Amino acid sequence: MWPFSSSKQNKNAVDAASYISIKETTEEAEIEKMVSKLEQIFFSTSREIVILCIGSDRSTGDSLGPLAGKILKEKNIPYPVYGTLKEPVHALNIKKVLKEIKETHDEPFIFGIDACLGDERQIGYILIREGSFIPGNAVNRALPSVGDYHLKAIVNTLDPLSPVHSLNSTRLYLVLKLAEIIAEIISRVAVNDRTSRGVIEKMNVP
Questions:
Q1: How many CA within 13 A on the CB side of residue 89?
Q2: Cβ neighbours of 145 (radius 10 Å)
Q3: CA–CA gap between residue 90 and residue 174 (Å, rounded)
Q4: String of b and e for 150-183 (b: at least 16 CB within 10 Å)?
Q5: Are 58 and 67 in contact (CB under 8 A)?
Q6: d(CA 56, CA 67)
Q7: What is the dihedral of CA 41, 14, 56, 133, to 10 degrees?
Q8: Confidence of residue 201 (pLDDT cuts 50, 70, 90)
Q9: DSSP secondary structure string, 95-115?
Q10: Strands (DSSP E) along 59-179, which ranges?
Q11: 186: number of CA atoms within 13 Å, CB side?
Q12: Mean pLDDT on 193-199
């Protein structure tokens, strides 16, 4: 969980990022736009892709990661998934999990997923950004930076005096809807990835 700034100095970075805004009826074309962007990212690396969903099931707003992880596990995607409702990855165990990932996977390409706080106009936005992020930044937790790329979903407004209250007062319906769409986007990419890799393998068979 970290804050999302809408200041002018970040405007270009926001405009350059791939994003969609979740509404009651999210257009199929909007989802496909995100699928295409994520395909460009995933298909451009030969490293093993690992999905790291960060958050706690003890806070409504911060449960986005574990919910998305649970749905992705149920979809049986070919990428390893860390962080579910059963086994969440949060402030107390993230260093241990990162160590486990590095020991289990050879130079993994880590794609992080986490919730974010912003202003009222940004609630419901999903953004894909290049580079790492610092989970827990919104609630002043000193945690290690994570990921080669990351996806963030803005779940509520940022109350600078009490960000924890913002998390705990977030609507579960919105968080679940965001998690479902995130999982749908990643699972579509995974299907296409599996198909494309299968074609390449067949072409390389003597």
A1: 28
A2: 12
A3: 21
A4: bbbbbbbbbeeeebeebbeebeeebbbbbbebbb
A5: no
A6: 9
A7: 70
A8: very low
A9: HHHHHHHHHHSSS-EEEEEEE
A10: 81-82, 109-118, 125-130, 149-157
A11: 32
A12: 57
The C-alpha atoms of residue 72 and residue 170 are separated, in whole angstroms, by: 22
Contacts of 148 (CB under 8 A, 6+ apart): 45, 109, 110, 111, 130, 131, 132
pTM over 0.85: no
Return mean pLDDT, the chain.
Answer: 83
C-alpha 86/C-alpha 92 separation (Å) is 15
Per-residue pLDDT tens digits for 81-90:
999 999 999 9
Reduced to 3 states (helix: H, G, I; strand: E, B; else coil), residue 88 is coil
Q: Is the CB of residue 113 less than 8 Å from the CB of residue 90?
A: no
CA distance 151 to 144: 17
Helix axes 28-43, 172-204, angle to 10 degrees: 50
For 126, the 3-state DSSP assignment is: strand
User: How many CB atoms are closer than 10 A to CB 204?
Assistant: 7
| Inter-CA distances, 112 with 1, 63, 81, 89, 204, Å | 11, 14, 10, 11, 32
Residue 205 has pLDDT above 50, yes or no: no
β-pair partners for 146: 133
Largest interatomic CA distance in the chain = 64
Averaged pLDDT for residues 85-102: 94
